[in-house]
Each structure stands twice: as C-alpha cells, then as structure tokens.
C-alpha cells in the first residue's frame, strides 16, 4: 500500500506539506507502538488534529506542538454515559501531543448525516444534546479540569474586540454591521459572569459524535470550556439549521435544536449569550480560514453576515 504521507489528504490541502508529513510519521510510530498500521487505517474528520481509525484503535495527534494532558485528565473524569472511548495511551512526541483510544463501532455522525432520514436526524440532535447534558450535569466535579476560555471563547473582551476588528477589515463590514458586531460581543461579556458556569464540550459538532443507529459517543474534548451553556447551544443550533455551504435550512432536526435551546437558555440573559457565542464562533473560524487561505468559499463570512442581520440569522427563532 502506498505510504499516505506521500499524498495530500483533502483535510491537509492548506497545510505545509513538510509539517503534514512529519505529523503522519509521528502518528505512524504511535500507531505501531499500539499494534496498528497507519497505512491501513482510515483518516477521520477533524481539522485541529489529525485522526486515524482502524486496527482496533484511534490515533489522534496535534498538527502543532500542543500538550493534550489537560484533555486526557478531563476525559478520564467524564461520566461513563458520555460514551467517550477508553484511552489506551497518551503522550507527546517532538512537541506534538497525541492520544490513542479504543476503536468503537460507529460512523462519524457528520459523514452519516446525509444518509439519515429526517426522523433519524431529529433523534440524533436530541441524543447529541443528551450526551452533552451528561457533561453539563457533572460540572461540579469537572470544573477544575477546564479553563474559562479556549476554542472559540476568547479570554477577554479585548481579545474578542481584536478579532472583531480583524473581521471588519477582512470583510469590509458596513458601519451598521460594525456597531452591531461590537454591541453583541460586549453583551456577551457583560452577561457571561451573571449566569451559571457549566463545563461545555466547546465544539458540539456532528463530526465529534459517533452514530450506530443512535448517537453512541461524544468525542474530542480539546476545546472544553467553563462558561454559559449557550456555548454548546449555539453550536447545536448551527449544526442543525445551517448547511455545509452556510445557508439556512428548515428541518425537523433544526426545529428540535431550537426547542432544546429555548428550554435550556438562561431566561434573562440567554438571548445575549447565544447570539454572542455564535458570533465568537464565526470570528474564530474566520481567522482559521483566512490563515489557511481558504477564501474561495467564505462560509464563516456568510454566517457572520447572517448573524449580524436584524433578525439574527439562523438564531432568529431564539432572539424574538
């Protein structure tokens, strides 16, 4: 079989080929140490890390020098009902953190999504949220294992404002859009300290769940963060109500996500929090896409403009 490190995987097309080859070679050594052959394993979805599955294991390794010790500690403390695969090993090689976990039966939910019936998609959204809620409910015991920022949640209003300023330059936002953007961000940071602080998955996306007739596992807690539950809610609603191209869609799954958000948003500050979290999510994606040179599609641009509409875009049912 041809060495996959000599070809470019679609997930790596915007990355430096030398760095990509290094990550592949490091992952191959880790896999071999745990009885696997990376050349015969399947590349899984995911952008911030590279993951291969097969031979009874899953190998996930950071593209950049990052330590995964904090994530491992959190995963090992998660309630069993979350369904996260057993961790078989973890470490750092040449600065790149890696985790080896047991392979469990199931298909990546994002890959399975187009094949599901509307009823199955609705059920999947509800089950995905149920797994996240198990984490939320365990916040008291887990909160010391996560930070108050990370993923798309900046450490401060100043950091968020800087991201907003980059966005307005890149996208040529109108003065009205700029004013609305800064107002939404400021509203989030005013409200966030006033509500319960929950351990959020931080990247509650379809690609971070496994499907086997039902959602059987919630994966990849690298962006877990302590903050308002609207952090996870905004991602759930986006996943269910926005297409891969960044257009609003109407479906049973989307209706279910809105219903879930209505029930779990803070009754006083929920609108400001879910709107602000969604904006911060797209600002981070915009920075990533720009850095990768992926300007031909501009999904984050489309979503950010949608959220800055007067009705709040795909969050409209929740902001009335």
Question: Can you characterise this structure?
Answer:
The chain is an alpha+beta fold. It folds into two domains: 4-102, Phosphorylase Kinase, domain 1, CATH 3.30.200; 107-319, Alpha-Beta Complex (Aminoglycoside 3'-phosphotransferase, Chain: A, domain 2). The chain is built from twelve helices and ten strands. The strands form three sheets. Strands 1-2-3-5-4 form a five-stranded antiparallel sheet, with helices on both faces. It has a three-stranded antiparallel sheet with strand order 6-8-9. Strands 7-10 form a two-stranded antiparallel ribbon. Helix 8 runs antiparallel to helix 9 (252-264). The chain starts with 16 loop residues before the first helix and ends with a helix. The mean pLDDT is 92. Residues 44-237 form the Aminoglycoside phosphotransferase domain.
Number of domains in the coordinates?
Answer: 2
Strand order of the largest sheet: 1-2-3-5-4
Give the overall average pLDDT: 92
Going by CATH, the homologous superfamily of the largest domain would be Aminoglycoside phosphotransferase (APH), C-terminal lobe
Largest sheet: 5 strands, antiparallel
Q: Unreliable segments (pLDDT under 50, ≥5 consecutive)?
A: none
CATH topology of the largest domain: Aminoglycoside 3'-phosphotransferase, Chain: A, domain 2
Radius of gyration (CA) equals: 19 Å
**Beta-strand level of the residues, as a percent range?**
5-15%
DSSP summary: helix tally:
12
Content-based structural category: alpha+beta
Order of helices and strands: HEEEHEEEHHHHHEEEEHHHHH
* End-to-end Cα distance: 56 Å
- Helix-residue proportion: 40-55%
Domain Aminoglycoside phosphotransferase: 44-237
Organism: Pseudomonas gregormendelii
Pfam family, one: APH
InterPro entries: AGP_Transferase (IPR051678), Aminoglycoside_PTrfase (IPR002575), Kinase-like_dom_sf (IPR011009)
């Amino acid at each position: 079989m041809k060495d996959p490190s000599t070809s470019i995987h679609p997930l790596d097309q915007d990355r430096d080929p030398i760095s990509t080859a290094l990550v592949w070679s490091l992952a191959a050594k880790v896999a071999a140490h745990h009885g696997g052959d990376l050349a015969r394993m399947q590349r899984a979805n995911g952008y911030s890390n590279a993951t291969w599955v097969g031979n009874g294991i899953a190998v996930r390794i950071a593209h950049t020098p990052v330590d995964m010790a904090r994530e491992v500690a959190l995963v090992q403390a998660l309630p069993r009902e979350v369904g996260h695969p057993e961790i078989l090993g973890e470490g750092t090689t040449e600065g790149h953190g890696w985790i080896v976990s047991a392979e469990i039966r199931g298909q990546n939910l994002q890959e399975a999504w187009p094949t599901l019936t509307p009823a199955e998609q609705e059920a999947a959204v509800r089950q995905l949220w149920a797994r996240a809620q198990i984490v939320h409910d365990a916040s008291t015991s887990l909160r010391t294992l996560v930070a108050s920022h990370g993923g798309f949640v900046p450490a401060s209003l100043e950091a968020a404002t800087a991201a907003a300023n980059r966005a307005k330059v890149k996208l040529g936002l109108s003065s009205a859009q700029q004013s609305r953007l800064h107002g939404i961000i400021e509203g989030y940071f005013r409200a966030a300290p006033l509500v319960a602080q929950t351990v959020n998955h931080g990247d509650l996306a379809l690609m971070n769940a496994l499907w086997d007739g039902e959602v059987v596992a919630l994966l990849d807690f690298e962006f877990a963060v302590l903050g308002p539950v609207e952090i996870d809610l905004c991602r759930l609603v986006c996943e269910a109500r926005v297409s891969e191209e960044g257009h609003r869609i109407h479906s049973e799954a989307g209706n279910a996500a809105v219903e879930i958000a209505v029930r779990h948003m803070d009754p006083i500050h929920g609108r400001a929090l879910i709107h602000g979290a969604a904006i911060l999510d797209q600002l981070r994606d915009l920075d990533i896409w720009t850095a990768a040179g992926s300007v031909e599609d501009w999904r984050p641009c489309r979503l950010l403009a949608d959220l800055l509409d007067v009705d709040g875009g795909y969050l409209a049912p929740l902001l009335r």
